[in-house]
Structure formats: C-alpha cells, structure tokens
Specification:
Radius of gyration of chain B: 22 Å
Strand order of the largest sheet of chain A: 1-2
Strand order of the largest sheet of chain B: 8-7-9-10-11-14-15
Number of strands of chain B: 15
Structural class of chain B: alpha/beta
Number of helices of chain A: 11
CATH topology of the largest domain in chain B: Rossmann fold
CATH class of the largest domain in chain B: Alpha Beta
Radius of gyration of chain A: 19 Å
Largest sheet of chain A: 2 strands, antiparallel
Helix content of chain A: over 70%
CATH superfamily of the largest domain in chain B: Response regulator
Strand content of chain B: 15-25%
Largest interface: A-B, 61 and 57 residues
Strand content of chain A: under 5%
Order of helices and strands of chain B: HEHEEHEHEEHEHEHEHEHEHHHEEEE
Number of helices of chain B: 12
Largest sheet of chain B: 7 strands, mixed
Oligomer: heterodimer
Number of domains of chain A: 1
Structural class of chain A: mainly alpha
Order of helices and strands of chain A: HHHHEEHHHHHHH
Distance between the termini of chain A: 50 Å
Helix content of chain B: 40-55%
Shape of chain B: globular
CATH architecture of the largest domain in chain B: 3-Layer(aba) Sandwich
Distance between the termini of chain B: 71 Å
Shape of chain A: globular
Chain lengths: 296, 393
C-alpha cells in the first residue's frame, strides 16, 4: 500500500472517531431543537460539565473502567437534573420565539462556564483513558490509540440506541405525536408537559455523556464549550433538524472535514467547516436529511 | 418552509452571537483613584479570562510576591496595583490597556502575555510616554532594532528560545534530519524560523515543516503521520496551552514518543500543561531561561516562598513578572514620571533573578542564559530537570 494512502486511511479512521464523538454531542441538541423547538445554547457548557465529571472521577492518574462507569452514571444524573431544570426555565418562553430562548440559555451557558472555571481552574485538564484502553494498536501500519477505537464502538452503539428509542419505541412515537398534534395526544390522556421535560433531560444527558466519552480525547478547559457548541450547531444544521440519522450523517461529514479536510487543506482550516455548511444549505436548505414538508 | 429557513438563520445567528459574546468577555477590575501625588499607580495587564488565564494568574502572583516582600513599595515609593484583564487577544487586551492608560492614568504598565496585544499597545505607550515592561509576550519585533524607548522586556524573544536549541539538536542527530511543527501564527513562525536558522548554521538538515492551523484543531494525527513518513530522526515543536497538551499526549498515543525524540521550546512542558500531559511528557527536551529545578540560592528561596504563599511551584511566567517588579524597583528609585522611569530602566544593572543573574541588552530585552531541560520523574512528580546551560550569558 502506498504510504500516502495508508497515512490518509488512518486519518479517515480518526475522522470517524471524531465524527462519532460529535454525534453524541449534536444529537441531543438536534432532538431538543427539532422535536421540542427549544434552542439550547447551554448544550456546549453541559458537554463541558460532563468532561469535568470525568476529570473529577479519573483524578489521580490511571483510572480503571469502574471509575469511567461511575463518571458515566454521575453524568447521567447531573444531565437529567440539568435538563429538567432547563425545560422548566425555558417553558415560559415557549411562545416568545427562539431569540428569547437563545438569550436565556446563553446566560445559563456563561454562568455554568464561570462556575466550572471557579471550581476547576483555568488550566487545561486531561483525563487518561481507562487502563486497558491506554495503549495503542497497530492499524494499517500505524500506531493508533485504542481509546479512539473504543469511542467509535461506543458512539455507534449509542447512535443505534437513540435511533431505536426515538424512531421505533412507544415513547418515541408519543414524542413525535406530540410534535405533530399536542392537543390530540393530551386528549388521549398523556401528560405532554412531562414528555417535554423528559426529552429535554434526555438531550442534556447525551451532552454530559458525550463529555465523559470525549474527555480523554479533547480534555477539559474553559473555551471548549463554545467550540463544541458551534460544531454541534453546524452538525444539526447540516444533518437536518430533529433527525437522528441526519445528525449521524452530519457528524460523520463534519468529522471528516475537521480531520481529513484540515490535514489536506490546512490553509483553509478555519473556513472548511462553515464552507461545508454553506454548500449543503445552498443545495438542500433543510439539511441533508431534513424533513422538507415539516411544518416550521 | 419559510418558517424553517427563519429557524436556521436564527440558530446560526445565535451561534455567532455566542462566539462574539464569549470573545468579548472581560472582567475589568474597576479601581478609580485619580490622586496626583501619593502612591505610584502600576497597571498590571494580564489575562484573567480566556486561554491564557493560567499564565495571567502566575504573573500576577509573581508580581505581587515581589511587591509584598518589599512591604508594598518599589524604589521606596508606595505602589498601587491596578489590574486589568488582557483576555485572549488584542480585541480585549488593547482596550484594557487603553483603559489603564486613559482612565486609571497609570504611571507604568506591566504584564502582557499576547504578542499581538504588545504590538498593539507599543505605539500608544510610546506616544503617551508611559513605560511598558513586558513580562511575557515574545514577538521578536518588540525588542531589538525596532525597540521603543518606552518598551522593555523581562521575558524572552521567540526566536532566541528556539535558536538556543538549534546547535544542540544538530549535534544530537548528526546526519539525520529534523521535522519542525508549530501553530500557524506569528509566535509559531518565529519559533520555527529561529530554530531552523541556528540548526542549519550548525550543519543540521530540516526534513519538513508543518505549520498546523492555530486555535481550530487539537487533533494532530494527520501531522504526526506525516512526521513518521518523513523519516525524521527528531522533531522540534512549539505549542502552548491546550495545543501543547494535545500534541504531547498524541505524540505518545500515536507511537512516536518511543522512536523519535521530541525537542521543544520549553513552554511546551512548563507549568499547568505539564501536569495535564502526565507521563506522556517524560523524556522531552527543551530550551528555556528558567526551571523551578535551577540550583541557585535565589531560586531556592524563591521556590520555597512561592510554594508557601500559593501552594504551587512557580513557573517561568511568575519569574518574568517577579523580575519585572524587580527592575521597576530599581527604576522607580530614580523618579516616578514616565521619562524618569525610562532613565531608571536604562540604568538597571545586574538583576539577581531566580533564573540566574541577567541584565538588559541595548535592545531592551534580557541578556540571559538558556538552559537545556529534560522532563523526568522525581519523587512521583514530573519536573523539568536542568541538564546544562545551552548559551553563555
């Protein structure tokens, strides 16, 4: 195999790892925005909360898988509570449009960012991967970190799980029905208010879990929240609002753009992601898998 | 459809709003006192938010420690410190400097991490005749031929730090080639250029240079693959903050650390980033003008005092600001107007610094020794051990 090809093959694998990680971040944003119609700009900050949860649990060098599972559980608990809280906060603004929601959640994001920086400091924190994933494996003639392969597997599993839950389960059907015709669902005896809180909590739990999963790759530091949020927004726009498979496709594309694209065209690095988004929007204004007929 | 289009516009606009608001975030410490006589006002311009906040904290610690040791007086005059937040770059740093100069009417300005801020402030302080003592920003153009009478520097120039290492690496790799990697902005370019010049002068050959996108990626996998393919015998790099952590960790994760020695400008393994890099940093060699491991009495006392006061070991950033206070101490003895301080700075003799004695060059920068450092484990802690001096003073 020519060296050029094997170099880029490994870069493509790395792009998949990054894309899958992006998916865990973006899918929550997409669900909350597409299904509940709430623009949650605190999503990046909540990712960072998850990353700091991992920092907290993996403190003291090499952590076992147990510490990571504990961090995951803690992230689920924190995320569920934060999501429910945000759902309650944004509910009075439901009729006032996206700008008010954006301002409120942006305020929440800034507060969370400052609290994290007060609690954990401004230094870059890194999280070692679980001990048994700390090494590298040989892949097309290169050493590749095992943890990144594990991220791909975990992320794919999560994607399937979320897709089944939203598109194939009874709960998912109820949520979609609520979006289509809330009064009818209420008439059937379902508490749609509780459903809203549940979806919001679920979306934020995904952000926090993404933080734990991503911590050994991206670390945790002030400013990471904005980077993650902007990439998440781009993925959501690219894939189509509220679509799980759209978020997945969008995340994989942006993953390749961020990794392979930046390595092939470094001089356009800061432009590539937004350029891709602009091109997709020109060709398909509703995103790659957006539902064109959906009432907006 | 129209509603959807509007929604898309909204979220993109909102996303940009986030970026803008976050970029402007600053926490200026208001401290209004317009007394004509009385204490000398010193403006301390350091980042208290943004990516350089840890450096700003160390610098403020270093400056305040010197001041406290002198009972709050420099040159026999009571000093009032006014702190302003430099933030992450010139968009916040230059207005903060303007505020210190115009609103607080400081007598002298100390600090500045970011070179773009330093270059943005240079003409302003020269016009308003307020001396500026830079305690970090390393742009080559700040000192030397393009110096201003009012701008002095107690830290380093990017090219000097990197250049100090060039001859040593050329000796180590003999006929082998070296690959250079740095972020694609002024400091990264100055560092690689400084290294390359000294390295090639000593007979070294460069295998390739990779200027990686600055601030937009912390994924170095593609560049690491290219380094491997280049057949380089060694790598020289310059990174800071999150990029330094990511580069060093990935250098190990992608299997380069065992095969290709890594050399760097010492900032790559200095302070908080070294803790985050952990074991991945072991064995990296770099050049810098300080390490808390330096074996001289001034440093031993400094490290002990600093650790007792702040519960952490000092960094090069703390020393640079500590020394800025020390030269100001000498300069203020001559007078407390802008021109008197500049005359005082011209007359500053040898500074007894934790980094070892140094004095100002004619170009207003420090004439100092650069040391070869190697990261190693000592008593369960990773430190930058001093191997030997790289340059004579």
């Amino acid at each position: 195999m020519p060296a050029w090809l094997s170099d880029n093959l490994i870069t493509i694998v790395d792009g998949v790892a990054f894309g899958v990680l992006l998916f865990t971040i973006a899918v929550g944003l997409s669900l909350v925005f597409g299904i509940m119609d709430v623009l949650n700009l605190a999503h990046g900050a909540l990712y960072l909360v998850g990353a700091y949860v991992a920092v907290r649990f993996a403190r003291g060098g090499q952590a076992g898988i147990g510490a990571f599972l504990l961090a995951g559980l803690a992230a689920v608990a924190v995320g569920a509570a934060a999501g429910a809280g945000l759902a309650v906060l944004t509910r009075p603004l439901a009729r006032r449009g996206h700008l008010d929601q954006a301002l409120l959640t942006l305020g929440v994001a800034l507060i969370i960012g400052d609290l994290l920086s007060a609690r954990f400091g401004n230094d870059v924190q890194s999280v070692p991967p679980p001990a048994f994933l700390a090494g590298s494996v040989s892949l097309v003639g290169h050493d590749y970190p095992s943890y990144r392969l594990a991220v791909i597997i975990a992320g794919l599993a999560l994607a399937v799980l979320v897709w089944l839950l939203v598109e194939r389960s009874r709960a998912g059907a109820l949520v979609r029905a609520t979006v289509a015709d809330a009064p009818m669902v209420r008439a059937l005896g379902v508490d749609t208010g509780r459903l809203v809180v549940a979806v919001f909590a679920f979306g934020v739990v995904l952000a926090c879990l993404g933080g734990v999963l991503g911590a050994p790759v991206l670390g945790a530091y002030p400013g990471l929240d904005e980077r993650v949020l902007i990439l998440g927004l781009v993925v959501v726009v690219l894939g189509g609002l509220g679509s799980v498979s759209g978020a997945f496709l969008g995340a994989l594309v942006i993953g390749q753009v961020e990794v392979l694209g930046v390595s092939l065209l470094p001089q356009y690095a800061s432009f590539l992601v937004f350029g891709t988004m602009a091109v997709v929007l020109l060709l398909r204004p509703t995103g790659m898998l957006g539902r064109a007929g959906k009432p907006g | 459809m129209r509603g959807l289009a509007r929604r898309l516009t909204t979220i993109v606009a909102a996303g940009l709003t986030v970026a803008l608001v976050a970029g402007c975030g600053s926490s200026l410490e208001e401290d209004q006192q317009g007394a004509a006589d009385g204490p000398v006002k010193v403006g301390l311009l350091v980042p208290k938010s943004g990516v350089y906040a840890p450096l700003g904290r160390d610098m403020e610690n270093g400056f305040r420690m010197y001041l406290e040791a002198k009972g709050g007086k420099l040159g026999g005059r009571t000093v009032e410190v006014v702190v302003a937040d430099e933030g992450g770059g010139p968009d916040t740093g230059v207005p903060a400097a303007q505020k210190l100069l115009q609103q607080d009417k400081v007598t002298t300005l100390v600090g500045i991490v970011n070179s773009a801020v330093a270059l943005g402030v240079r003409d302003q302080v020269t016009d308003s005749k307020v001396p500026l003592i830079i305690a970090n920003a390393g742009a080559n153009a700040i000192t030397g031929e393009q110096r201003s009478d009012y701008v002095w520097r107690t830290s380093f120039a990017n090219g000097e730090v990197a250049g100090a290492l060039g001859g040593y690496v050329a000796d180590q790799v003999k006929d082998g080639k070296v690959f250079l990697a740095a972020p694609d902005y002024a400091a990264g370019k100055e560092a690689t250029a400084g290294f390359q010049e000294a390295f090639e002068a000593a007979g070294g050959q460069v295998a390739g240079t990779e200027l990686t996108p600055f601030g937009t990626t912390t994924n170095f996998q593609p560049y690491l693959a290219r380094i491997q393919r280049s057949g380089a015998e060694a790598v020289y790099c310059f990174y800071a903050g999150a990029e330094a952590v990511a580069f060093v960790k990935q250098y190990q994760q992608f299997g380069l650390a065992d095969r290709i020695p890594l050399y760097c400008s010492g900032f790559v393994t200095e302070g908080g980033v070294l803790k985050a890099q952990g074991d991945a940093a072991l064995g990296i060699k770099g050049s810098l003008h300080y390490s808390d491991q330096l074996d001289n009495p001034t440093n031993q006392k400094f490290v002990a005092d600093y650790s007792a006061r702040y519960g952490d070991t000092p960094t090069v950033y703390a020393v640079q600001a500590y020394d800025a206070a020390a030269v100001l101490d000498q300069a203020l003895a001559k007078g407390a107007t802008g021109d008197a301080i500049v005359e005082g700075l011209k007359g500053v003799g040898e500074v007894d610094s934790p980094r070892g004695p140094w004095r100002f060059t004619d170009g207003h920068g420090p004439d100092q020794v650069y040391y070869l450092r190697e990261t190693e484990e000592q008593g369960g802690k990773i430190v930058n051990a001093i191997v030997r001096p790289l340059t004579g003073s």
